[in-house]
Amino acid sequence: METKWLEDFVSLAETRSFSRSAQLRHVTQPAFSRRIQSLEAWAGVDLVDRSAYPTRLTPAGQTLYAQALELLQNLQATRAMLRTHLSAGQDFIEFAVPHTLAFTFFPVWMARLRERFGPVRSRLMALNVHDAALRLTEGGCDLLIAYHHASQPLQLDPERYDMVVLGQETLAPYARAGADGQALFRLPGQATQPVPFLAYAPGAYLGGVTEALIRQAGVPVHLDRVYETDMAEGLKLMALQGHGLAFLPGSAVQRELTGGLLARVEGLPLQQSIEIRAYRARPGPRQTVRAGAQALWDHLMVDAQTG
Q1: Cα 40 from Cα 61, distance rounded (Å)
Q2: Which of 16, 128, 141, 261 could disulfide-link 96, Cβ–Cβ 3.0 to 4.6 Å?
């Protein structure tokens, strides 16, 4: 038996929807259904009444739901105590951060945070967006910092996770600057001569935002996809070498713009504002939040309210 099966089951009991719970748990619906079936096989009894809609639990399922809530809360509390011992009283705050934000936003944000909040003992885990979100949902970090855009929402249940907006980021096309200071390429390109496009690999968060932005251009945009990678830093390096244009967050290119190495690609007003958010698991009635993490969260909430 795996604890993630219990977490899946609790989510299903609360949403009463296989599809909604699959989204919240960041798995496909078939995979989510298999995990519920595995839990039923372990229990030796049906936990879900599949003849009803919306989904409802059997009497055995109701019993397990109550027990699973208590068990998971106890496990999280135990893990928090163990992590406190591991930190040897230093109260490290653990952040799960997608790669792009880890390289661009996080160092600058942390410097400003120390000026306003004070010293912070931090441990950074740089991951892809999916794995970073899983760290939070599985109790493996104190805070998740991630992008948010309506076209690519993170499916985190607001009943179980607190959120605060840390700032805004702008995604726009950039390319190597020529001798005149202008980008080597111009949009929208031509059907016979498309612009070389340095793209995010399928599944990358900023790739989804970029695709939505291009669809909203209002005119055909002619791009030749010549390169793919998951990371904005990788796209930036290729753009610096003149291989094409890339849609990059502003925080990733500030130094290169100031130095005249990169320039904004002109021709179409393509840019997209994206929120940067912090998330944490909402503390339960029997769960103790470490003092440092709680103090930081309180500071972020006040900071957001005062602008």
Answers
A1: 9
A2: 141
